[in-house]
């Protein structure tokens, strides 16, 4: 096997190692009301320091991004601070100069929106670096204890979005149907006048030859139409429709009734 083929993986590994990024001169300062409370040089290889901030304290972080071997300052394409606490996380972009220097301030009086909701559990702070020419890097900076987040203020319309109790419908009890015997009795009473009328017609049609006269039959038919209208109303029609159709039938009944009375008077006087 050719020697260059054997050295190719080693050369690639060396190039990747040479293109790694590191952080130099990382320092954190805590102050309150223009009074410096703490300043500490960060060592990225040892145990993470634990810092604490009060409600009005300000944390200032400064560092420089450089190549791991050459020590030359580098401006990464992406630089972020990652805050993680209790399963919640937030990412804050950090501006880095062309020489690799960066500065970030965390004012607890006005915390950034990237800081996740906090409890008594410390917030782990990491630095994330991304570059097209260098390998991505991640550094654990420190653990930060901050005051617990206050509950969010209640929105005026919050109650409108709460689940409402289920709507319970109260249905009317089923309509009670009268006994069949009572229904049959009243049906017979309704039909009885027509039975009597037909019976009278069958006995008087030979004595009174004018019952089926064109002057009498329209009036009788209008009366039958009224009965049919009431039956239709009971089955399907509404009250407004019954009043409309009844008014039309009323006019027809009045006209045919007047004509029938006139014809009956003429027959009695012998004019017809």
UniProtKB/TrEMBL annotation:
It is found in: Endoplasmic reticulum membrane. Keywords: Endoplasmic reticulum, Membrane, Signal, Transferase, Transmembrane, Transmembrane helix. InterPro entries: Ribophorin_II_C, Swp1. GO terms for molecular function: transferase activity. Residues 1-18 form the signal peptide. The keyword NADP does not apply. It holds the Pfam family Ribophorin_II_C. Residues 171-266 form the Ribophorin II C-terminal domain. It is a multi-pass membrane protein. One of its GO terms (biological process) is protein N-linked glycosylation. The keyword Zinc-finger does not apply. PANTHER family: DOLICHYL-DIPHOSPHOOLIGOSACCHARIDE--PROTEIN GLYCOSYLTRANSFERASE SUBUNIT 2, RIBOPHORIN II. This is Oligosaccharyl transferase delta subunit.
